[in-house]
Amino acid sequence: NPVIDREEAKELLLARYSSIFNQESSTIVVSPLDSERDTNFHVLHKFQKGSNEYVLKFMNPKEPLSETELQTLVLRHLSITLPTARTTVTSSLSLVVPEAVASDKGHFFSLHLSRVDGRESAVRLLTFVPGVPLRCRLEKSSPNAILRYRMGAALARLDYGLRGFFHPSSAGRLLYWDIAQADHLRPLLQHIGDEETRELVRRHLDKFVEDIQPKLRHLRRQYIFNDFNPGNVLVPDTDSDEISGIIDFGDLVHGNIACEVAVAAAYLFFSYMKDEFDGHQELKNEDPLSSVCDLIRGFVSVLPLESEEVDVLLDLIKLRLVITVLITSWRCVLHPYNAHYILRYHKKALAQLNRISLIDSDGARIMFYHAAGLSHMTAIMNINAITKPSSLSSWTSANELKARREKVLPASYRLFYEKPVMLV
Question: Cβ neighbours of residue 404 under 8 Å, at least 6 residues apart?
Answer without folding.
Answer: 360, 363, 396
